[in-house]
Design brief:
7 helices, 6-stranded mixed beta sheet, globular, 245 residues
Length: 245
């Protein structure tokens, strides 16, 4: 949990699961639209899996995403950017020095908006024990350094294998028992503390109440170019239609 609540700003944009890669290019145009002020916001909240593969400690993943990494760093000079690490993008603090980065261990992140308590998470912070062990190991800097060396010596065979696997993945699917899944997923959390609990990860673009708490699963930018904007009436769904720099 974050040490003190973040202040969410009126007009903040929530962007999740862009999965930027050779397969999904929408993110770059979206960020250019913010830079040109075609899309205006005082605060950009990146809710994880913004990149398909971006790992601090594996320089090749930074190099191949360089234009978007550079653009996020440029935007962070003018607007506040908050980045919740996902399962496809982690160990990011050194990559984005001007961005407030929250690791999986720091999620859910406590926030405040208009006197209300809001929680933010990518969505995989409380997986099964085996998954939690995996997330700890794969984020270890020594493990990443070894994998980076192995990948480099092998002409990036690890990254190429991951690319091939992700190319076959169906990023846009419906979970027909999603409400039941989320209720179980958050059953150990005291949701009475929050007015709203916002997640990405699941790509469902669905909201419902759990008791007095409003649960919101964000749309995936990779699935229909959806995102959300925060205002006095809560979160509003938006769609990015593209644009010129």
């Amino acid at each position: 949990m974050s040490r003190s609540p973040l202040k969410l700003l009126d007009g903040a944009i929530f962007l999740s699961d862009a999965h930027y890669s050779f397969k999904h290019k929408e993110l770059y145009d979206f960020l250019k639209a913010i830079r040109s002020q075609q899309i205006q916001t005082p605060q950009l909240i990146l809710m994880g899996d913004i990149f398909d593969l971006l790992f601090g400690g594996i320089p090749y993943t930074v190099e191949r995403n360089k234009e978007v990494v550079d653009l996020i760093n440029t935007l962070s000079d003018n607007i506040e950017i908050i980045y919740l690490e996902g399962n496809h993008d982690f160990n990011l603090t050194s990559i984005f020095p001007g961005v407030k980065v929250f690791s999986i261990r720091q999620q859910p992140v406590a926030c405040e908006f208009g006197g209300q308590s809001v929680a933010l998470a990518h969505g995989d912070f409380d997986g099964p024990l085996g998954y939690r062990f995996y997330t700890a190991v794969i984020r270890n800097p020594f493990v990443l350094r070894f994998l980076s060396m192995l990948d480099s010596v092998g002409r990036h065979f690890i990254i190429k294998a991951l690319d091939a696997k992700l190319a076959r993945k169906n990023d846009c699917h419906s979970m027909y028992t999603f409400e039941q899944y989320v209720t179980r997923h958050l059953s150990k959390k005291d949701l009475s503390r929050y007015t709203m609990f916002i997640e990405g990860h699941h790509h469902q673009n669905h909201a419902f109440n759990i008791g007095e708490c409003r649960y919101v699963n964000l749309p995936a930018l990779a699935c229909g170019s959806g995102y959300m904007s925060l205002g006095k009436n809560g979160l509003q769904s938006c769609r990015f239609a593209g644009g010129k720099d």
